[in-house]
Amino acid sequence: MKPAIKSAIVAIILASLYALILRLLFGISRWNEVFEVMSTTFLFLLPTVIGALVVYLSKPESAKSWAYRIFAPWMPVFIFLFITLMLHIEGWACWIMLLPVFLVATSIGGVIGGYLKSRKAKNEKLQVSILLLLPFFVSPIEHFIGSVQQEYEAVTFIDIAAPVEKIWPNVTAVREIPENLDTGNLNRILGFPRPVKAELNHNGVGAYRKAIFTNGLVFHETVTHYDHNKKMNFTIKAYPHEIPSTTLDEHVIIGGKYFDVLTGEYSIEPLPNGKNRLHLRSKFKMKTTFNFYASLWAKWIMEDIQNNILRVQKFRSEQM
């Protein structure tokens, strides 16, 4: 085996082990006040360090190649992905959301590692030690700064060729949705629960609406504004203790530490062409140190759920 290939394999294995060790350490609950998986340190800094290590620990002739700097760091990411999935340390949904950031960050790290390697510094052991320990120094600082709670909105609508009298009953209460009407593609890929039905005990302010999803997920909704055939507002509450541990990953559980759905609103807008536009809005909150990224996924997921339900309501309203 060529020395360059042997060196690359060793570097990739060491980087993979480093990633796995950090994941296990950051996952220890008693250390959550200092080290946590749901952090900018883990999401952005860890893969950057992994990428830098792979290139820095490789032979100089390999490190000179830009293709090597960019793509070789991806190998420990995929190894890390495989191991954490096999050991049930991470869920598939989390990895789908993590993977784009990890690949970009490891490539950036690879470029940094290549630069450090090209400098031919005498204190290589010190530089490697600093790289390895960097997440342990940055994470406490991140936790000292703290996470920020922010509210976001998912806005969706659909045009329906039916009168409001046919649309509204499908809005207030949703009959059981068979799998063939389920078009929530993103949530299906992520393995999230799909909507089953919604029950309303009566029409009017104060009414209780129960939105039921598969795998034991239930949204408890209370109507706060009711304008018959026009508009309905409601609060939304999901209780984490009601959701089976196998339904959602702990990092994306609804009503948990990082993500919660707050309110919903249905409204019908008459259109000049005789159709009616059914709007569905929801508000949700995020509390992480990387809301700028997490909120994008949360919004896509919420919009996918809402569009799925709206398509069912359109189909049923036009078929009645």
Give a short synopsis of this structure.
The protein is of the alpha+beta class and 320 residues long. The protein has helices at residues 3-26, 40-56, 60-63, 66-71, 74-86, 92-119, 124-145, 164-172, 185-190, 291-319; strands at 148-160, 195-200, 208-213, 218-227, 231-237, 259-270, 276-288. The longest helix is centred in the C-terminal third of the chain and has 29 residues, at 291-319.
Total domain modules: 2
Question: Sheet bearing the most strands, described?
Answer: 7 strands, antiparallel
CATH H-level superfamily of the largest domain: START domain
Give the distance, in angstroms, between the N- and C-terminal Cα atoms.
71 Å
Give the number of DSSP strands.
Answer: 7
Percent strand equals 15-25%
Q: Care to describe what's here?
A:
This protein has two domains: 3-145, no CATH class; 148-319, Alpha-D-Glucose-1,6-Bisphosphate, Chain A, domain 4 (2-Layer Sandwich), CATH 3.30.530. The chain is built from ten helices and seven strands. The chain has helices at residues 3-26, 40-56, 60-63, 66-71, 74-86, 92-119, 124-145, 164-172, 185-190, 291-319; strands at residues 148-160, 195-200, 208-213, 218-227, 231-237, 259-270, 276-288. α1 (3-26) packs across α5 and α2 (40-56) runs antiparallel to α7 (124-145). The longest helix is centred in the C-terminal third of the chain and has 29 residues, at 291-319. The protein starts with a helix and ends with a helix.
